[in-house]
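From the shared-data thread, chain only:
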Amino acid sequence: ADIFAEGSYVDVTGTSKGKGFAGTMKRHGFRGQGAAHGTQAVHRRPGSIGGCSTPGRVFKGTRMSGRMGNDRVTTQNLLVHKVDADNDVLLIKGAIPGRTGGLVMVRTAVKRGEK
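Structure, as tokens:
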């Protein structure tokens, strides 16, 4: 807590909360398909994942369903609101990745620095 001063900016790195197995709408923000005009039970499906005989495969990196969260995430340029050196506490304004009581790494902001 001695390193950081009130009013300075920091980057906070932690492990995001795991969401389990998630579909394409939740995981990647796909819009889904319409509710009317003959659509039947495909409202939350991703749609096509590639062509037919050309290229005859699914490209790497195609956004699909899968496990969401539990990744290393860095939130940049968060303001240090208050420093309590006696209790080793930093009050930081903004969203911190991870669960309550989780371990995070705090370092001085790379892209902003002092303002």
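The chain has two domains: 1-18+69-115, 24-66.
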